[in-house]
Write a structure and sequence with these properties.
mainly alpha; 5 helices; Multidrug-efflux Transporter Regulator, Chain: A, Domain 2; two-stranded antiparallel sheet; 2 domains
Length: about 130
């Protein structure tokens, strides 16, 4: 299938498919006699897997490692589960950090609501 069809089927762009090929996430793609790339269904499935991996917050390197497990003849399901668990743990930690930041900002905003007259003139701004 041509690149535009493959990109649409994988839910990505032609530029992304060429990039994935360049960095080795997709195997070398054959060419038609006219020189057009001819994507097999397996390449489309790999590209869609990478897209879903990215949507789950995994890096291209992590997606490539999972593909390497698959290419080695092993189903990567347990590896995927481990990466997703790691990603969820990191996301939970980030959410906690963001909640703490939100609390700090809300406190600073409440302090700033008293107006500039409450600000210490010897400081740039005592609200920060």
């Amino acid at each position: 299938m041509r690149i535009s069809e493959a990109a649409a089927a994988a839910g990505t762009t032609a530029k992304t498919l060429r990039f994935y090929e360049d960095i080795g996430l997709l195997p070398g793609i054959g060419r038609t006699p006219a020189g057009y790339r001819d994507y097999p269904q397996e390449a489309v499935q790999r590209a869609a897997f990478v897209r879903r991996s990215r949507a789950a917050g995994l890096t291209l390197e992590q997606a490539g490692a999972l593909l390497a497990v698959h290419d080695g003849g092993t189903r990567p399901c347990s590896h995927v589960r481990d990466r997703l668990a790691d990603q969820l743990e990191a996301l939970d930690a980030r959410i906690s950090e963001l909640q703490a930041l939100r609390s700090t900002l809300a406190d600073r905003l409440r302090a700033a609501a008293s107006g500039p007259e409450a600000c210490d003139p010897r400081q740039v701004c005592s609200y920060l």
